[in-house]
């Protein structure tokens, strides 16, 4: 008796599993979706990812029994795979050859509806080809296409229904209709994404991102009291701590469109410098030479010396250093000099070590021209206490 009972239970379970497998469902649709169709209604059903036309026979416990129009075969379809009827062939004819009008907006549609963009695009998705590389040309082309989207909206309105089938866009009238009907609302999103992508892909920005990373490594590895450089002679350190200098740089390079991206790139460096720069003291002990006349000459490297508060100055050498060409003939002779100062017009709390050399150009016959000063570079450092 026990063996017979086991056999009966097994048979019942087998039938139940078979019945479950025979019910078609749209795995991408919400489980509680139901178009609430009635007996005799024409409908669109999703069968293994394809759109088929059906006539509803009956409905019971969230499952429609429906007859496929093309074959006469009856199917069991979960409610989430059955949608209001539209002419699938007519839809295909309307959208044929118009993919480039819709595909630029799919990412924005997915964001708005919190959907997976890759699923919405489907397998074999072909990205829109604009034939240009910048946001301004994208804007011009998409604006021209607005009239075509308006015509597409009119054509899609001829469908008896435009349901969301939860499938990829090529089998989903709702996606096409919403983008066409709300084209002006979607346009700013697409243009914003294109501009952002142009920024992200910019070789100019990539090069400067790499430069910032290099300085960042110096800053992160610096230990207070060490004789290592902290990389603050780099222009990136200055741009990180000075909004004024950053804006001047971007304007000079005609790169204001990259401002937000540059701000983001420089933010970690600015934070690191805030932690480390107060401990980065100038190494003035090497600059113990020089006369009042030398320092007066060095100041001529500044266009407006009065804006600087100078704490210390000096030369590294008392004797001239000779710079020679490959043939051993002098080019010039020089002495390395430095100022430790604060710029009264700075918009940041740090000071500078400003390197200024005294140079005499070679005149020939063992003689040199009169001394001149030459600015070399600035290095950000901590200010003296109380300054």
What this model shows, in words?
It is a single chain. The protein is elongated, with a radius of gyration of 37 Å. Strands 7, 8, 9, 10, 11, 12 and 13 form a 7-stranded antiparallel beta sheet that branches. The protein has a 6-stranded mixed beta sheet with strand order 1-5-4-3-2-6. The longest helix has 22 residues, at 135-156. α6 runs antiparallel to α8 (183-200). By secondary structure, the chain is an alpha+beta fold. It contains 13 helices and 13 strands. It folds into 4 domains: 21-85, SH3 type barrels; 89-200, no CATH class; 203-279, no CATH class; 284-381, no CATH class. Residues 1-21 have low confidence and may be disordered. The chain has helices spanning 2-21, 88-95, 99-102, 106-112, 117-121, 135-156, 173-181, 183-200, 203-221, 235-241, 243-252, 259-276, 292-299, and strands at residues 23-24, 42-47, 50-60, 63-68, 74-78, 82-84, 308-315, 321-324, 330-335, 337-343, 351-364, 367-368, 372-381.
